[in-house]
Amino acid sequence: MSEPLRNWAGNITFTPARIARPRSVAELQDIVRGATKIRVLGSGHSFNRIADTDDTLVSLTNLERVIRIDRAAHTVTVDGGATYADIAAALHEAGYALGNVASLPHITVVGAVCTATHGSGDANQNLAASVIALKLVTASGEIVSYRRGDDDFDGVVVSLGALGVVSEITLELIPTFDIRQNVYLDLPVAAIETHFDALMSRAYSVSLFTRWQGEIIDQVWVKALGSGDEPSAELLGARAADRAFHPIPDFDGSTSTVQLGVVGPWYQRLFHFPIEQKASAGAEIQSECFVAREDAKAAFKALHAAQDQFSGALFISEVRSVAADQFWLSTAYGQDTIGFHFTWKPEWEATIAAVKAVEQALAPFRPRPHWAKVFTIEADAIRALYPRHADFVALANRLDPDGKFRNPMIEQVLFR
Ligand SMILES: Cc1cc2nc3c(=O)[nH]c(=O)nc-3n(C[C@H](O)[C@H](O)[C@H](O)COP(=O)(O)OP(=O)(O)OC[C@H]3O[C@@H](n4cnc5c(N)ncnc54)[C@H](O)[C@@H]3O)c2cc1C
């Protein structure tokens, strides 16, 4: 008997009646046309049932990898199964970069875009913001193309996979650039009250890593442009690390992208974990809540006050900034945002209790949960956080009148 199919974290066992692995877009169209219910599985890095189905699960890993760079338009077009790891070095070698990336490169571009995946940086929007066109295999098997500026474009990009299968996606490129990464240790929590904005805008991308224990933020990761000033030895009371660190302080720092201020290309510094460090499974569970930037300090304070209720279940938490965008289902829709991310130990009951404690502490700030991670906020409350929710439902009903691309989680959160 073959092994059951699980997500990267191992907390979800997928339940499809059949798994399809088309080798061409024409084959994919036939599969979609013939299916009653269908979902796409990207690289399986989501922590909930967003990708699951009890009917047809389609994986695009066997599609021919496409990396088509258009030097006139400064874009790259990739197939629906490509990962950031597949494309990053090729972009750099061609003189290009992506504006921002997530913490690891092993996720598919479309899977990341669909769930409003993000990195950090006051001027950096989530990864969906680099999309300028995509092709969608809709319920009838027909391919519909969308470009930035089209009606409904802002609805189709962050789709949670509920509108069709993205067979091809085109991303905006910028000239390649260098980054230097420095880690600072033991930032006093008091610095948040007085210096939060200065801290988060200190460099191209800044992450705060904390175990929510005592009065210390364990690490500040500063990813600065390589062309900028030399890093300082101290940052608002935090001291520069003199060895490489993993986000979880006790873990092996040599598995992170190069730190200690060594300048290198964007794709070898902006991810926290390098391309060659592929972990096929991970013993952890993640959740994340986003609040409006203007509420960040008060939200931080509320979590600090409640930290004893959840820090025991935690490996590490990461605080990042995401600039506002206009995608209807984006967690940064209409507001500059701060994400409070939590990497939990792989103990389900303790994790759920801790997730609830975090959500409760953040409730006054109307947190939007990450679509791809664990959350317990009620569907009604989530919908109320998205002013364009009704437009998304209307678009989905038009493109997929029979709900072919919906699974129980999507039905529950968006449609019921
Ligand atoms: C270790 C780790 C680190 C992470 N770091 C970050 C981070 O830094 N920032 C962040 O925001 N998130 C982060 N995440 C979450 C991750 O970015 C999301 O789970 C993302 O969706 C994963 O992409 P995937 O390819 O694994 O997609 P899956 O989990 O396989 O699928 C996600 C969704 O996309 C849909 N989908 C995938 N491909 C297609 C397609 N071609 N057409 C239509 N729908 C499609 C699926 O149906 C599903 O609904 C992390 C997760 C892990 C495990």
UniProtKB/TrEMBL annotation:
GO cellular component, one term: membrane
Limits of the FAD-binding PCMH-type domain: 12-176
Molecular function in Gene Ontology: D-arabinono-1,4-lactone oxidase activity; FAD binding; L-gulono-1,4-lactone dehydrogenase activity
Coiled-coil intervals: none
Pfam families: ALO, FAD_binding_4
Keywords: FAD, Flavoprotein, Oxidoreductase
Superkingdom of origin: Bacteria
Name of the protein in question: FAD-binding protein
Species in which this protein is naturally found: Devosia aurantiaca
